Amino acid sequence: MERDKIKKLGNIQFFSDLGLAVIKDPPKLPRIRSNVVNEKMEHVGSVHDIFGPVKTPYVSIKVKQQYKEILTTDTVLYAVEKQRRDVRQQKKKYSQKKYSSSKKRNS
């Protein structure tokens, strides 16, 4: 959990016909498929989609079956995102022999 970031999504606005919880205009957008927890840090579901206008986006959350009847519109949800290592920062190590010999061939 050291590398995990917790972002507040906000209150549930409504539930869609497909059983997805929808939150309007969260302060910071989560990544799709990031885990969603409630105030008690119980895993409630995952981020399914981000849609709508750019200025006020909506976030849909696929809620686990056991929490569908427990969650209400007053429930505050949070997204838990794991920090990824930046692959671009890893330096490749080339052997000096291969690199120097290829220069000699081109000359």
Structure description:
The chain is mainly beta. It has one domain (4-78): Thrombin, subunit H (Beta Barrel). It is built from 1 helix and 7 strands, in the order βββββββα. The protein has a 7-stranded antiparallel β-sheet with strand order 1-7-4-5-6-3-2, with no helix packed on it. The radius of gyration is 22 Å and the shape is elongated.
What is the CATH architecture term?
Beta Barrel
Q: What is the C-level CATH assignment?
A: Mainly Beta
Query: Any low-confidence stretches, pLDDT <50, length ≥5?
Result: none
Helix count equals: 1
What's the average pLDDT? 85
Lateral strand order in the biggest sheet:
1-7-4-5-6-3-2
Give the overall form.
elongated
Sheet with most strands:
7 strands, antiparallel
Termini gap: 54 Å
Strand % is 35-45%
Structural class: mainly beta
Number of strands: 7
Helix content class: 10-25%
Describe the oligomeric state of these chains in a short phrase.
Answer: single chain
- CATH homologous superfamily? Probable tRNA pseudouridine synthase domain
CATH topology: Thrombin, subunit H
Q: Total domains, how many?
A: 1
What is the C-alpha radius of gyration, as a whole number of Å? 22 Å
Give a brief description.
The protein is mainly β. Helices cover 10% and strands 37% of the residues.
Question: How would the blueprint of this fold be written?
Answer:
Elements: E1 4-11, E2 14-15, E3 20-24, E4 35-37, E5 43-51, E6 58-63, E7 76-82, H1 96-106
Antiparallel strand pairs: 1-7, 2-3, 3-6, 4-5, 4-7, 5-6
